[in-house]
């Protein structure tokens, strides 16, 4: 089912893509210059929260009143360069939640929106409180002063059984224990997005003084010899096990100018649609938008070094190197994983197969469907009841091994 496209409030600026050009045109507010990785992070947050709200808010069409919550567990503001906090998760979250609710309100549905913001730093909290008090939107907000862990039981009680989107973006590791997150994910329509600060983990994972903080954050011991992929796998697995979630996946946010990953955003969900959404957003943000944003950042860096202006804007590749590399690597691996699932199950519908593949592979559901169809043409896989003129595999189609004639 398709849902109406949201009209985002003008106070929340979005990245705009001009598909007529080779490189996407990204309208990044100047306040993000030098913090391009934060822009990409907030772009993921905005796009996911809007679509989550539209999906969950669709339950209001039956005449029932539904309440959508957004919880920002480490809200800041910390390094905002804008007077109106436009470049913070606070403003992003409020705008996205309101935009999602407005989609259904325009049709007469009854949706209430509420947001909780937690901040322990006294100065940041005072700024947060004043900012929220000045807001005139429909989202009912409250600021909680203190540690996230000190408020988690209160937050859980406030949420009740309502759907909620939980955003965990700490400046370090202390206070972001997985046990705290687990208290907020007991309801099915709860999605959690967590910033895994990989750059800091790689630097400090061998320090004995941080072992306890890492253990709390990861929900278990973090062996210092683990590489990036193993660290991510450990966190995703623990997030599902400790927090009672069905699926977990990550996207990599690259450094603004260097060729390395800066941090990972890890998503925990119970609905397979969340995985599909994350992979589509990953392709747009970590692929297309990152290519232009990082190319622009590199040009500004080089201009400062050489005191010479860069070339006119048609910046960057169609996809950023890091996403393009992961996607190209994971395509064949994803097909192998899909084939193995077909073999293990003896055949299953595509919508029962793709979620487990998308969890650990940086491909979209559409891409995997096309890869599966190519395997059908090569007779490595088969569709139990093939459609004439098909170009992809649909969710309701059953995949089996080998050509159709091999099925009993």
What does this structure look like?
There is one protein chain. This protein has 2 domains: 30-306, Rossmann fold (3-Layer(aba) Sandwich), CATH 3.40.50; 321-406, Arc Repressor Mutant, subunit A, CATH 1.10.10. It has helices at 36-57, 89-105, 122-133, 148-159, 178-182, 198-204, 211-218, 228-243, 272-306, 321-345, 350-360, 365-377; strands at 66-72, 111-119, 140-145, 164-168, 190-196, 247-254, 261-269, 348-349, 381-383, 398-401. The radius of gyration is 22 Å and the shape is globular. It has 408 residues and is an alpha/beta fold. The longest helix is centred in the C-terminal third of the chain and has 35 residues, at 272-306. The protein has 12 helices and 10 strands. The strands form 2 sheets. A 7-stranded mixed beta sheet has the order 3-2-1-4-5-7-6, with helices on both faces. A 3-stranded antiparallel beta sheet has the order 8-10-9.
CATH class of the largest domain: Alpha Beta
Order of SSEs, N→C?
Answer: HEHEHEHEHEHHHEEHHEHHEE
Number of domains: 2
Helix content: 40-55%
The chain-level structural class is alpha/beta
Unreliable stretches: 7-23
CATH topology of the largest domain: Rossmann fold
Estimate the strand proportion.
5-15%
* Main pleated-sheet profile: 7 strands, mixed
Number of helices: 12
Distance between the termini: 33 Å
- CATH architectural type of the largest domain: 3-Layer(aba) Sandwich
C-alpha geometry = globular
Global mean pLDDT: 88
Number of strand segments: 10
Cross-sheet strand order for the largest sheet = 3-2-1-4-5-7-6
The value of Rg in angstroms is 22 Å
């Amino acid at each position: 089912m398709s849902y109406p496209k949201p009209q985002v409030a003008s106070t929340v600026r979005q990245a705009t893509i001009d598909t007529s050009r080779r490189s996407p045109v990204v309208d990044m507010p100047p306040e993000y210059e030098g913090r391009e990785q934060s822009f990409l992070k907030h772009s993921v947050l905005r796009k996911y929260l809007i679509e989550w709200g539209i999906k969950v808010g669709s339950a209001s069409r039956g005449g029932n009143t539904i309440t959508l919550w957004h919880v920002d567990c480490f809200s800041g503001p910390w390094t905002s360069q804008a007077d109106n906090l436009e470049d913070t998760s606070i403003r992003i979250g409020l705008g996205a939640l309101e935009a999602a609710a407005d989609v259904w309100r325009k049709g007469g549905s009854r949706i209430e929106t509420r947001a909780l913001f937690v901040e322990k730093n006294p100065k940041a909290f005072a700024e947060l409180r004043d900012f929220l008090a000045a807001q005139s939107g429909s989202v009912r907000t409250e600021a909680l002063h203190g540690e996230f862990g000190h408020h988690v039981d209160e937050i859980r009680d406030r949420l009740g059984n309502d759907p909620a989107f939980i955003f965990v973006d700490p400046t370090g590791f202390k206070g972001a224990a997985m046990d705290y997150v687990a208290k907020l994910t007991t309801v099915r329509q709860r999605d959690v997005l967590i910033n895994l600060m990989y750059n800091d983990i790689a630097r400090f994972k061998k320090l004995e003084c941080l072992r306890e903080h890492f253990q709390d954050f990861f929900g278990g011991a973090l062996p210092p010899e683990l590489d990036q992929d193993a660290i991510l796998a450990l966190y995703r697995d623990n997030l599902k096990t400790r927090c009672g979630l069905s699926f977990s996946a990550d996207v990599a946010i690259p450094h603004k100018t260097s060729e390395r990953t800066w941090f990972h955003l890890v998503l925990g969900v119970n609905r397979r649609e969340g995985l599909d959404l994350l992979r589509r957003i990953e392709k747009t943000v970590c692929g297309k938008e990152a290519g232009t944003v990082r190319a622009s950042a590199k040009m500004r860096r080089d201009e400062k070094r050489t005191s010479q202006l860069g070339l006119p804007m048609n910046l960057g590749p169609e996809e950023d190197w890091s996403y393009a590399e992961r996607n190209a690597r994971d395509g064949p691996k994803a097909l192998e994983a899909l084939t193995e699932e077909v073999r293990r199950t003896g055949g299953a519908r595509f919508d029962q197969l793709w979620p487990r593949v998308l969890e650990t592979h940086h491909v979209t559901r559409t891409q995997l469907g096309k890869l599966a169809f190519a395997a059908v043409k090569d007779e490595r896989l088969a569709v139990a009841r093939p459609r004439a003129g098909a170009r992809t595999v649909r969710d309701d189609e059953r995949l089996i091994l080998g050509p159709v004639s091999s099925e009993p």
